[in-house]
Structure formats: C-alpha cells, structure tokens
C-alpha cells in the first residue's frame, strides 16, 4: 500500500503542485492537504507495526489503534470530498441540502462510536513464532464499513439521479453526463466499502485488514484525483472566458 501511495503521488506531483501553488487558500484546500498526508502517516505506522520487533501486547494495542483511527480518518476525509461534490451538484435543491446536512453528523457520530467500541473491546497479541514480527488483533470494523457503504450508496443515488435529470434536460449522451458527474468515482468507492463489509464479516482480521488499508489508500487517490480534475476543468473554463474577453476588448 505504501508503494502504491508513493507511486501515485509521484505520478501526480506536477499537477498537484500546480494546484497548490495556483489555487487560493480555502478550507477545501486544507482538506486536500490533510487527505494527501494522512495516508503517509498510516503507511509509516503500519510499516513500523509490521516490521519492527515487538513483544509487548500493550504496544501492539496502541499501534493497531493508531492504524484504525488513521484509516478511518483517511476514509472520512475522502468521503467528505464526495459529499462536497454531491452538495455542489444539487446546489439549487434545498431538500437535498437539508438531507445531507442532517444525515452527515449522524453518520460521523455513528462511525466514531463503532470504531471506538471495536478498538476498546478487541484483544491484541504479538507473534508467538520466533523471527516473525507484527501485531495481531481481533478488532472488527464491520459496522463502520457498513455505515460507509450506506453513506456512499446515498451519495451515489443522489448523483445518479442528478445525472439522469441532466440527461433528460440536455438530451446529451448519458455516458458523457455520467463521466462529468464523476459517477464512476462513487461506484468504485461503494464497491470497496461493500468488499470491506463482506471481508470484515466473514474473514479473519489478518485477511480483512488488507482490504481496509486498500480502501483507505484507493479512496484517497480517487478523492484527490476527482478534486484535481474538477479544479483543472474550472481553470480551463476561466482561461477560455479570459481569452474571449480579451479578444472582444480588442475589437
């Protein structure tokens, strides 16, 4: 996961620095930076927990708890980008705004509560095999990922509904409208949550934790890529408007 994250960061480094240097400072930009660097912290803690020799279960509990919290924070930050995107799509619909603003705090409180309960009630141990490092736990975040899945399903339904309405009004190509609505980002996000719901319910911790880390990384990549893409489109439209205005002023 660390390799994937570093590789993605290297591939998007130029675009990202252009965004960071040219865009104005806003709360969303701060969220972007936080979403970018939380997975770095998660990867560092995971590498330390997995490869540094450790024979203290209490230390294992701390490391696993930190990983769980950082993973949930990373997913939460990423989901917030999808939430903002949905909010922007429905900017003229007061009912949708009220629904989003009312449901989001409930989802956050529920996720925090279930994650905390899972961490507190879980048991932690180190490897009993000499030469094998790493910490082991029986913590289960099934409820948290189920809530994420429901949340993403709601956002996807709202986005899909908006895309269909736009398609009917403009008579354009449905595929193009779906792409512009970033529906495929939502689909991937929901699929990953569904996988984690299944693996958390039926697989042992050592197996389903792999998918948890995978979702944290992939969701962050999708959210950041989506935001960069939207910002680039916005910049292009501004540049075109400026060019047209300059041309008209010369007439």
UniProtKB/TrEMBL annotation:
Domain of life assignment: Eukaryota
Record bears the keyword Transmembrane: yes
Keyword Ubl conjugation set for record: no
Pfam families listed in its UniProt record: DUF6533
Residue ranges of domain DUF6533 in the record: 2-41
Keywords recorded for this protein, A-Z: Membrane, Transmembrane, Transmembrane helix
Transmembrane segments: 31-51, 63-84, 96-121, 141-163, 183-203, 209-228
InterPro entries: DUF6533
Name this protein carries in UniProt: DUF6533 domain-containing protein
């Amino acid at each position: 996961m660390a390799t994937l994250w570093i590789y993605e960061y290297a591939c998007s480094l130029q675009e990202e620095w252009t965004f960071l240097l040219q865009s104005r400072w806003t709360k969303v930009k701060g969220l972007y930076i936080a979403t970018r660097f939380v997975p770095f912290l998660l990867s560092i803690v995971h590498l330390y927990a997995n490869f540094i020799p450790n024979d203290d279960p209490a230390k294992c509990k701390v490391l696993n708890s930190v990983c769980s919290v950082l993973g949930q924070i990373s997913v939460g930050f990423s989901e917030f980008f999808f939430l903002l995107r949905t909010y922007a799509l429905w900017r003229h619909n007061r009912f949708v705004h009220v629904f989003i603003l009312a449901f989001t705090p409930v989802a956050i409180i529920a996720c925090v509560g279930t994650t905390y309960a899972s961490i507190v009630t879980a048991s932690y141990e180190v490897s009993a095999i000499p030469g094998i490092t790493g910490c082991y736990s029986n913590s289960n975040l099934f409820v948290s990922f189920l809530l994420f899945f429901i949340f993403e399903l709601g956002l996807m339904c709202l986005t899909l509904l908006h895309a269909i309405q736009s398609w009917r009004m403009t008579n354009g190509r449905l595929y193009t409208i779906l792409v512009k609505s970033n529906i495929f980002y939502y689909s991937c996000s929901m699929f990953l949550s569904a996988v984690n719901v299944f693996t958390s319910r039926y697989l042992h911790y050592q197996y389903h934790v792999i998918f948890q880390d995978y979702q944290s990384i992939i969701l962050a990549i999708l959210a950041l890529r989506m935001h960069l893409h939207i910002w680039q489109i916005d910049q292009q439209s501004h540049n075109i408007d400026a060019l047209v205005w300059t041309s008209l002023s010369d007439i």
